[in-house]
Amino acid sequence: MKKLITIVIVGILLYACKTDVKTEEVERDTYLISGEAPGVYNGIRAYLQTSDERGRKINMDTAIVMNERFQFEGKVDTPQLWNLSINSVAGDLALIVENKAISVKVDKDDMSNTTISGTKANDDLMSLNNDVKALRTKATALNNQIRNSTDAAEKSKLANEFTKLTREIRALPLNFAKNNTNSLYSLVVLDNLLKQKDADIENLSGIYEALDESIKSSKLGTNINSRIASIRKQRELTKATEIGQPAPDFTAPTPDGKQLNLKQSLGKVTIVDFWAAWCGPCRRENPNVVKIYNKYHDKGLEIIGVSLDGNSRQGDPKAAWLKAIEQDQLTWNQVSNLKYFSDPVARAYNIRSIPATFILDENGIIVAKNLRGAALETQIANMLN
Q1: pLDDT at 2 > cutoff 60
Q2: CATH code of the domain containing 357
Q3: Half-sphere exposure of 242 (CA within 13 A, CB side)
């Protein structure tokens, strides 16, 4: 009897410990996402997905539902906002994946009613999702009212309310980050907002700075800080090469090892042409540039070709550069540090892709950029004729 009582007590204690684990964050070296999927058939696939810049879905992990359960296990360097989708279930669900134990209970009829537990970040995410759902329900009701109304004044009033509500929904994540300075989810919100091309960097930077030090010092926090600095620098470079700005000056090595300076090489019109031997579109455009140079050089046109050769797959990048110059009959000034896109001149001009051209006047002011074909010749003709 004593032995039986002891076993029962140990069992109760073990169960109690297990229950506590479900409500507390469990630190791990990997993420472990345990899912329940009542009513989902065996063999159905579940996915953890993210999206690329074009919105295309990318599968980051895959699991198979067996006995109404599935499990993902893997490792992330920093917390990630991914989506959970299941083949037979409509829609998907955002969740924060971090190296902890996470539990998911799927509603096969309405993915938005799926619950996530196990981490504070996902608790915060679920709370925000509930707020979004409540506002979207209001928005749907308003939209129905607008459709059914025949009164123009009422329609206009309802439409204004709908617009206001839509703005409120969009502002929810940012407001959450402002008001929850100790939440990891606030970092995830900032992380995603910084991926937008038109991100308000100063506003997001201010929200980041207001976060608790424990959040900012996390790996994701330090990554975001670096990204803010990088975006600022990139935008400064973009601004420095806008039309109407003085072209950034540079000095770079020529094929024979001498140094060429932009300001000392300006003509009445100067084209700074970023290209490379390995760049197909650049090589196809070169005959047009040769024609323009031969036609307008005597009138004051100068060209400085800046080669981004130095791709590790080229073998001997300098040999490839020199061969391309000869093959394409490029008789104008050429420079290159043979450092691919890490070339300091390319960085000064914020070059992300080639071909890229900058057309400068006699004072070195950028008057046009990224022109090709007939458009390039028209620009040069207008400046020199």
Answers
A1: no
A2: 3.40.30.10
A3: 6
